[in-house]
TrEMBL record:
The lineage of its organism: Eukaryota, Sar, Alveolata, Ciliophora, Intramacronucleata. Residues 21-105 form the LITAF domain. This is LITAF domain-containing protein. SMART domains: LITAF. Belongs to the CDIP1/LITAF family. The chain crosses the membrane at residues 63-83. It comes from Paramecium sonneborni. InterPro entries: LITAF, LITAF_fam. It holds the Pfam family zf-LITAF-like. It is found in: Membrane.
């Protein structure tokens, strides 16, 4: 689990018209750190190099912020639920719509 495998390619053998063909499959770094910005990564679902589409979703951290504020200020507890900065950033492949990564608001 080190950064040394960034950009490495993995050989994959496929059979095409009864002949073995060696394909170079780009290997996704195992410990990629997603942020709230779009990333250029290889989608492991469709094997395309894609720029992720970031979708903000309600996460555990956002709900916990609302619960912490609930006993103090009854109406203020909705503020974290309305703030985009408190949401989890989910990185989706624009081609196959698969989730390729996630940046959680509090919980990793
Ligand atoms: Zn994909």
């Amino acid at each position: 689990m080190s950064q040394s495998n960034v950009g490495q390619q993995q050989q994959k053998t496929v059979i095409c018209n009864n002949t073995e063909v060696q394909l170079m499959v780009p290997q996704q770094p195992q410990n990629i750190q997603f942020t709230r910005q779009p990333h250029i990564v290889y989608c492991t679902n469709c094997n395309n190099q894609i720029q992720t589409h970031v979708q903000l979703k309600v996460g555990k951290g956002q709900l916990m912020m609302a619960l912490i504020m609930l006993p103090k200020l009854l109406f203020a507890c909705v503020i974290p639920l309305l703030m985009d900065d408190c949401r989890d950033a989910v990185h989706l492949c624009p081609v196959c719509k698969a989730e390729v990564g996630r940046k959680n608001f509090i919980f990793e």
